[in-house]
Amino acid sequence: MEVFGKELIITTLSGLEKVLVKELQLLGIREVEEIKRGVKIPYSLENIYLTNLACRVALKVFVPVYTFEAKTTEELYSQALRLPWQKYQKVNQTFSISNVVHSQFFTHSKFAALKVKDALCDAFRKSHNKRPNVEIKEPDVTWHLHIFENKVTILLDSSGYSLHKRGYRRLQHDAPINEVLACGLLYLSEWDAEFTPLIDGMTGSGTIAIEAAMMASRMAPNLNRNYFSFKNWKNFDSKLFDAVRQDLMQKVRKKVPAIIGIDISPRAIEIANTHARLAKVQKYVQLVKVDFIDYQPISKKGLVLMNPPYGERLEVKNVEKLYEFIGSTLKKSFTGWTAGMISNNKEAIQQVGLNSKATYHLMNGKLECDFKLYELFEGKKKGLVQE
User: What's the pTM?
Assistant: First the structure.
């Protein structure tokens, strides 16, 4: 059954579904249905262009095209062979097929994707006497195969590569935080990007500070990205795309609150400076080489976010002692502030020694993490839960 033109599926990281719903509503999209690791919204070319350019916590924007049932690879191939692939792709366009398979009938996801690839190529051989070529890096058309038990859905991936790849993070740094996750932390912290100062306490490659600067300046996260798969579609509307992009450009503002990224490593500060320049937010971000434990904020209140080493991807001699020092610094120097910390090290994060007002369960890559928020009051504050 053909389902093209009915809905869009926008994916995100686990734990950020509600954040994505709110973000889409702020973009003016009212009909939003939350699903696991994503949302559904109405199909339109404008929604495709807007969400790809402007969603900070989106990973991919998919358009469901076909759905059918199959229990064997033979059924999968024969059903896919009947599909009119030529409606959406030209024979001289390169393509790729990604996949997600959760099925007792298809236990080898790559083999299932290979059968669909064969069906697409054979369909073109029948109609054009030649087949399109596969391209992995930047294909003209990106297809996605989703199988749940015997239900097969074939989707067009309008984004191409993941939307978290903004294009500015080009230098290597150990264990950088995902750009989408960084924005998720900012949203979950309820940071007031209009007025509230922000400190990225261990900035590393600068991701949190840079994403905060884009958020505060209202710069759409993928405004400067050139590659999107939808640009190669037969129905691509360049005038509408330019209009959506121009509207987003006009919303950028020049005045932002103080955004400071600090790190003890001179190499990290050098990398973060380069990334801020590539992201075109260097005028909004101040990067300082200093140990967080020695840092003294100049504002009486604000938000400080921390992505400290977990002891997994970055080895630290005594990670629990580090977290204890972080907690002492927050209590001593950041009275009146809100603090947020993400970590997968549950033992170490207990050493912070603060009462958390909220805990969110998130994924940082393959690591299950807790993101804890703290309100740093003078003296004791009743009503907070000891974790």
Answer: 0.93
Residues 145 and 192 in one domain: no
Longest Cα pair distance anywhere in the chain, in angstroms? Answer: 78
Q: Are 384 and 356 in contact (CB under 8 A)?
A: yes
The H or E element containing residue 20 is helix 17-26
Contact 213, 285 (CB under 8 A): yes
Task: Specify the residue for token string 């209202």.
Answer: 218
Q: Count the residues in the chain.
A: 387
CB 238 within 8 A of CB 300: no
Q: Partners of 38 in the beta sheet?
A: 11, 35
pLDDT in tens, 270-285: 999 999 999 999 999 9
Q: Provide the token pair at 190.
A: 């309820």
For 308-353, the pLDDT digits (tens) are 988 654 455 688 999 999 999 999 999 999 999 999 999 999 999 9
Cα(193)–Cα(236) distance, integer angstroms: 34
> Does residue 273 sit within a domain?
yes
Identify the bridge partners of residue 156 per DSSP, sorted by sequence position: 63, 143
Q: DSSP alpha helices (H): ranges in 175-217?
A: 179-188, 207-216
Dihedral angle computed from the Cα positions of residues 27, 257, 177 and 359, in that order, rounded to the nearest 10 degrees = -80
Break the chain down into helix, strand, coil percent, rounded to 5.
30, 25, 45
Q: Give the residue carrying structure tokens 């003209």.
A: 140
For the chain, how many structural domains are there in total? Answer: 2
CATH of residue 52's domain is 3.30.2130.30
Give the closest residue to 72 by CA, choosing from 123, 126, 108: 108
Q: Does a structural domain hold residue 189?
A: yes
How far does Cα 277 stand from its chain's mean position? Answer: 21
